[in-house]
Hints:
284 residues; disordered N terminus
Amino acid sequence: MRAPTSFPALRRVALALALTCAGESSVSAQPAKAPAAKPAGKVDVGPAVQKLKSGDEAQIRAGLDDLRIAGSGASGAAPAVAELLARGLSEPLAQQAIDTLGDLESPEGSAVLAQYAAHRTVAIRRSAVKALTRTKGPAAAAALRKALGDADAQVRGNAASGLGALKAKDAVPDLFAALDHKVNEAAASIGQLCNAEQCDQLAGKLGKLPFDVVTGGLEPVLFRPASDISDDAKIKLIGRLRELGTGEANRFLKDVEKRLPKEASPRVRQAVEQAVKATTGGSQ
């Protein structure tokens, strides 16, 4: 018959088991680390480019589809798509090629898109202007400035918005001219790009243009970093809004007050708070 295990021995075994279980529990309690995401690499565009060069419309469509799915990772195919457009395509195929260049987001597509931004068909012009906002570059900015005078309101509006997205500060005078011709989207782009003098010029439109159009441009000014537009310039704009004393001004200023980030300048915050109080009577 086996001798009974001594109590000290039992205690040592129990302690060892407890430590082992605790260790396993500690390990299992830690969330498993997700594998690091691999940076998106460039796509092999060779097969798609071969389809573009096939001369067969079905193959060309398939190649464009492949590139759109790949997106900016297939930007190396932009010259091939641009060459295809430069040779001339049926309008439906041209539309697909234009949209593809937008998805590839390569400046190498901007020159040919600039030509299509002046196409006789308005749907083509609209697509080209949208694509230019994504391909960027000097050619894109120049084409968008020209498109501000297009006969189609949607083309004009998209061109104005695109110039803001491209940070085309040289285009601010053109945007003011467009704003005076009722391209309301120009106001927001002016607000993204204007220097202190130009921002004040925009504020001078208060009372001359619809309030929501002008404040659509003043709002981005007030949220731009101090390194981009000074506190003094912002406070001057706030003063113009305060002088209006209207309910519209009060509601706009209240909204700005709520959304000012924590790191906003104390001077700007104080100016907004005081302007809200000063225009409260107008909100009744």
